[in-house]
Amino acid sequence: MKRDSRLSGVLHVLLHMAETDGPVTSEQLAKAMQTNPVVIRRIMAGLRNQGLVRSTKGHGGGWTIAKELSTVTLRDIYEALGSPEFFAMGNRTEAPGCLVEEAVNAAMDDTFARAEALLLERLGEVTLAALSADFHTRVTRRATHCEFEDAPHAA
């Protein structure tokens, strides 16, 4: 079963946008995500409908983030995507009158509900600002690591 990577992809796009001064076109975002601009426009339209991004048409137009990164949570973005299913697993429903199936499904439903609640809670705690800060920390770490590797070795 193919995994739904829209949330990860949108977060990737939004962080690219956060690093850019001014609007970013669907074509630019599609190139960064190695997808079709139509896919980007479809996804971004959902974010625009939730007030997370805005678009401007014409020369110099494109997509911009509409809110402060610190006010946008991963849950906000997840919900703007239509709250896709978290789990590919589901319950067996071939024997609706079977008490064993009912017991198993009840336990699985409870487990899935608890796991989903935990995931939603965590998504609500992480902001785009936190992702951006993590990105910048990684950039600094990599630059420092590269400088160290490139430095002449003491004899």
UniProtKB/TrEMBL annotation:
InterPro entries: Tscrpt_reg_Rrf2, WH-like_DNA-bd_sf, WH_DNA-bd_sf
PROSITE patterns with a match to the protein in the record: HTH_RRF2_2
One term of GO molecular function: DNA-binding transcription factor activity
Pfam families linked: Rrf2 (PF02082)
Recorded GO CC terms: cytosol
Entry protein name: Possible transcriptional regulator
Taxon lineage: Bacteria, Pseudomonadati, Pseudomonadota, Alphaproteobacteria, Hyphomicrobiales
